[in-house]
Amino acid sequence: MITQTPKGTRDILPSESYKWQFLERQIADLCADFGYKEIRTPVFEHTELFQRGVGDTTDIVQKEMYTFLDKGNRSISLRPEGTAGVVRSYIENGMASLPQPVKLYYNISAYRYEKMQKGRYREFHQFGVEAFGSKGPSIDVEIISMIKLFFDRLGLKNIGLNINSIGCPVCRKQYNDKLKEYLRPSLGDLCGVCNDRFNKNPLRIIDCKEEKCRKVTVGAPSILENLCEECKNHFEGLKSGLDNLGIKYNVDKNIVRGLDYYTKSVFEFISDNVGAQGTICGGGRYDGLVESCGGNPTPGIGFGLGIERLLLEMESQGIVIPEQKEIEIYIAAIGEEADIYAQKLVFDLRSKGIAAEKDLMNKSLKAQMKYADKLGAKYSIVLGEDEIKNSKATLKNMKKSEQAEIALDSLYEEIINRR
RNA sequence: GUGGAUAUAGCUCAGUUGGUUAGAGCGCCAGAUUGUGGCUCUGGAGGCCGUGGGUUCGACCCCCACUAUUCACCCCA
Questions:
Q1: Residue A242 has pLDDT above 80, yes or no
Q2: Residues A276 and A394 in one domain
Q3: Is there a single domain that holds both residue A153 and residue A268?
Q4: What gap in Å lies between CA A390 and CA A388, rounded to an integer?
Q5: Is the ipTM of this complex over 0.90?
Q6: SS3 A227
């Protein structure tokens, strides 16, 4: 059907769009306070970028990307997340020669071919941040505190923060070997997917929800206890930094994140109101990503925050978002002459920044008043022959039902004075 | 990819053991003595009853398929 949006997409109608605009303003303010500048990258990139950047072994790349050949026979993919494009841009535009760290944010749509569910769409929107060049835990703390403040400003409560460290390539390799050793005898008891994971990414087995796999992994060595000295110190630095800011967190050894590029710190903000898709925000450090995409070795960290899920959470917490500015004055006109006069009056008011409306449907006076009421106009005036002849009219306060005689050429001042 | 639920007006939903012109509330439009909204009343527009087959004298209702929506698994924002 051509009168239906494609699966997993939807229209954002005026009854919703003001909420999005509100969040966009909040995001811009937040990022200004933290010194993050906006970056806009293309909706599509070369498929190889995501294969390299997000990871060949991930579900996202293997089965969820919108990939197609363009007319020049290039393999193109719609972005399934925001980080890869930003990393590409960092390298391409030589941002390594900018003052470090480079702190960027974006507010984008992203695309994944997934089965629909509450809080999960094929076209979804993400507010994300990426910071390049800083390897200490202090920027990890900054980024987490930024999200925390964002939620606080929106009035959200009870959003849990889980953190973990998944180590660097060095200690993760050692840990993986240890884990494989532990799991090898019980390989037959693991699910099929985990048998695949055993060679590709054994860390993910810890995260498996299958009952039989959990049984096997109960006593498995944890990555946290097997971090190298540097990673351990980094994680301690993150925790004490959060303590210092009074940010509560829970260490969850099972957070692994589905994207391959993460190293050291990973974190997620969780709600139980959104349904099965409770992760409102997820992120972490990716110290090897810039290099593996072809840049010089550069540490990085970032997060992605799902706008749809955020809105669901705000709704379930009963948070009211202010609507667009109301119509200040409705000018009702009777007859053709008055209508022409009203057109000019409305234009003059609008030119000066006053939201004004007039009839466009040839409605009766009564219907015009009704319409003014539905628009939520604060004031109305009625223009007929007499008013135009005398240059005077009655200004009516719609809420209080009070009326006052005013001169037409002082209408602007009268409205301003009543604000 | 696996499993469940659902599909009637713009929205939220009724619709009798299968029976003749398919209903309500909200919303929209217009009126209720000629120039003033909200409350009330009256009227109107608006439905291929998701699509296609089947059973039946007869299907919104029963059966099958498809499509779409939705929830969960998985994955993730």
A1: yes
A2: no
A3: yes
A4: 6
A5: no
A6: coil
Higher pLDDT, A256 or A173: A173
Q: Which nucleotides of B are covered by protein (CB under 7 A)?
A: 1-3, 28-32, 35-38, 68-77
The CA–C1' separation of A116 and B56, in angstroms, is 39
The yes-or-no verdict on residue A35 having pLDDT over 90 is: yes
CATH number at residue A139: 3.30.930.10
Q: Return the CATH number at A401.
A: 3.40.50.800
In this complex, the nucleotide whose C1' atom is nearest to the CA atom of residue A397 is B37
Query: Protein A279 CA to nucleic acid B12 C1', in Å?
Result: 31
**According to the model, what pLDDT value does residue A353 have?**
95
User: Under 8 Å CB-to-CB from A363, ≥6 apart: which residues?
Assistant: A371
Closest by alpha carbon to A165, among A103, A228, A213, A212? A228
Q: Taking the C1' atom of B75, which residue's CA lies nearest?
A: A59
Residue A258: the pLDDT is: 65
Closest CA to the C1' of B68: that residue is A7
How many domains is chain A partitioned into structurally? 2
Give the pair of three-digit tokens for residue A238.
């993150």
Per residue in A286-310, pLDDT (tens digit) is 999 999 999 999 999 999 999 999 9
Share the mean pLDDT of chain A: 91
Full residue range of the structural domain in which residue A128 is found: 14-168+228-316
Stretch A63-69: mean pLDDT: 91
Distance in Å, residue A4 CA to nucleotide B15 C1': 27
Question: In angstroms, rounded to a whole number, what is the distance separating the alpha carbons of residues A297 and A16?
Answer: 43
Q: Is the pLDDT of residue A352 over 90?
A: yes
Give the three-state DSSP class for A251. Answer: strand
pTM of the model: 0.91
Protein CA at A114 to nucleotide C1' at B61, angstroms: 35
Q: Are A330 and A377 in contact (CB under 8 A)?
A: yes
Q: Closest nucleotide (CA of A7 to C1')? A: B68
| A270 and A246 co-located in one domain | yes
Q: Is residue A176 part of a domain?
A: no
How far, in Å, is the CA of A252 from the C1' of nucleotide B71? 27
A354 and A265 both lie in a single domain: no
